[in-house]
Write a structure and sequence with these properties.
Blueprint (H helix, E strand, L loop, with lengths): L9 E6 L5 H15 L3 H22 L7 E9 L2 E7 L26 H8 L2 E5 L4 E7 L1
Antiparallel strand pairs: 1-2, 2-3, 3-5, 4-5
């Protein structure tokens, strides 16, 4: 079995604190190093996954430090899967404002899911939006 063959799902739990994003950044950097992920794919993973975690902290768990975000990840032959789950009630991921619409360009928020959709090779929302799966081909 080589380094990128099927691996078990790994898991970590982080508090709903802004500084917890640093843990996720280190995780993605470690995956890049261990599995020889290209710079382009690494950049896409870094932005998309940290956006998902940031959304979970601020929108899902409402920055409540007593609530946690669970991050599961799995590296398989040519693919990395991330599952990010928060303790929030979810959101309507089908009816989000278009961040590229002129009336939304100046807004400080609203681009995270747009970026995630464009940077990941596949994205799946479930549990009413409180769980997101991101897939990247490496």
């Amino acid at each position: 079995m080589n380094e990128t063959s099927a691996k078990p799902i790994q898991s970590l739990q982080i508090a709903s604190l802004p500084e917890s994003v640093n843990i996720v950044e280190r995780l993605i950097d470690d995956i890049k190093t261990r599995h020889n992920v290209s710079e382009d794919c690494f950049g896409n993973m870094l932005v998309a996954v940290t956006e998902a975690v940031t959304n979970a902290i601020y929108h899902g768990n409402k920055s409540d430090p007593k609530k946690y975000i669970e991050i599961k990840y799995k590296v398989e032959e040519g693919k990395v899967q991330f599952i990010i789950a928060d303790e929030g009630s979810g959101f309507d991921y089908y009816n989000l404002p278009d961040p590229t619409a002129p009336e939304n360009l100046e807004k400080p928020t609203g681009r995270g899911i747009f970026l995630m959709k464009h940077l990941a090779d596949q994205i799946i929302f479930s549990k009413n939006g409180s769980l997101v799966e991101l897939y990247f081909n490496i």
